[in-house]
Amino acid sequence: MAQALRLPNFAGARATRRGELRDSDSTLRQWSPVRGLESPAWMREVYDRLSVLGALPQGWDTYGARPVDPTALATARLFLSHLQVEDLPMPHLSPIPSGGIGFHWRVGERDLEIEIGPGAGIRCLRTQLPQMRMDEDEVDIVKAQEVLAWLLVR
Amino acid sequence: MHQQVQDAPDIGNEDFLLRRITTALHTSPQPDGTRILTSFAFREEDDEFSMYVAAEVTHEKVLSCGHEGQEIVELLAGEVRQLEYMIVRQPDDCDDSHVYAKARAYKANNQIKRDCKAFAEFVNRRRAAARLEAPGPGL
User: Fold this and answer.
1) Residue B2 falls inside a structural domain
2) Which residues contact B45 (CB under 8 A, 6 or more apart)?
3) ipTM metric
4) Hey, is the C-beta of A66 within 8 angstroms of any chain B C-beta?
5) Considering the domain boundaries, does residue B112 fall inside one?
6) Chain B residues whose beta carbon lies within 8 Å of the beta carbon of residue A135
7) What's the domain range around B110?
8) How many CA atoms lie within 13 A of B109 on its CB side?
């Protein structure tokens, strides 16, 4: 349902003098997933919320937090553009005092927080409730899909 | 110069500590209409958690030092100490009851994130228990 459509892009392609595109390694590789009409209904709302977080001032938490870093914001958008997990509920977004952005999901007794730092690093914290068994890891955008899939394992 | 700090001996484990959070940013709506606190509510730039001693200040006073859209969450001092933090007195511009939680020994960043998660769950469980006793709207 929420499967991203994959279209070729022109990464690795070079323009000839005549303006034609030629793929340097004979394979047109994907640039980034392009979402179709079946993106989750909440996607637009989440993008809008990211924009709101990006406008928060210094000290938004009354404890001296930094504003959201533009690199974290851009990485968060990229992360969203790669979401390919069907039936994923809408995440809750939080700014993080260091300038990062946090995504939170809870499905049943599985709780997941994904944090995008001001340096664009992505870390996830999985918590199995009620035992509070926690597993924390650094991931990339691709690995993050596996972590999200964990949320929905029955 | 390194300043010596100490765990406040006059704050008992059964004493509540108050922390301002921003409801829309730090609580995650759930399908049943409740909201749960996320660990991000306890994150601070310097990894020390600012709070006020409940017995010495009102919720209204603590909220008056914040901004619109904030609310108070409560942790027990014993919960904070259980995770190896000291509760250090440090009066601030808002109130003399201000304290901060400081790790007794060095903690790596990932451990602090886990601690923040544990703090959030202490709050969530207490609120869930309170809802069972007195059903109604709330966090």
Assistant:
1) no
2) A63, A64, A65, A66, A97, A98
3) 0.88
4) yes
5) yes
6) none
7) 16-132
8) 10
